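User: Predict structure, ligand 2-phosphoglycolic acid.
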Amino acid sequence: MSSKTLIIAGNWKSNKTNAEITSWFGGLKECSKDGLAHTEGKKLIICVPFPYLARAKQLAADLPFTLEIGAQNVSPYGFGAYTGEVTAEMISEYAGYVIIGHSERRAKFHEDNAVLDEKVIRAKVAGLEPIFCIPDENTEVPQGVKIAAYEPVWAIGTGKADTPENADGVITSIKNKWHVSTVLYGGSVTGENINSFITSPGIDGVLPGKASLSPEGYWEMIVNATVSET
Ligand code: PGA
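Assistant: Predicted complex:
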């Protein structure tokens, strides 16, 4: 019997100061005294704002379990005259993952399929694993994406999560339609509802925003997520 590796990828969005980050990692270390067995069979990722990538990597190395670092965006360009952009190569010095296509970037920064395709290509060339977000099964997932996240816009930050049954159905359609092996659910995931999602057969993990902002909230999700044998 084997079990699927469950992904819990927190997304801090555009939040936190340097001091708050230090305290988040300190708090998480404290929480983990509760028992490292809770982290077994789980791939833990935290996606942080660009200025904190290096610090987060350093602080994560001091934890008694593996917490991987992700970014929340990437430039669709390489090195060069692109003032303000952060390239995939730069990110890959500190992180293994990058969120691409989050609905906040699609809506507020007008990112379209062409730009998102380019971001995925750049990320993959630099060795970053994209976590590609889509609001439904009809939204294109670029070729080569291994991890996608189904995030219905109405469930993001509203406290009104999708039902596990509906999320499981949409995720199964995404897997079939876009040939993605791993699909997460995101949208108002908490320590209270995490288990109802990850025990659904098609759902490979979660992408929580708000609930990952406090170390206690992130740890609670780790503890409450039971890894099922398959
Ligand atoms: P939320 O955010 O958990 O705060 O709803 C999820 C996301 O936007 O990825």
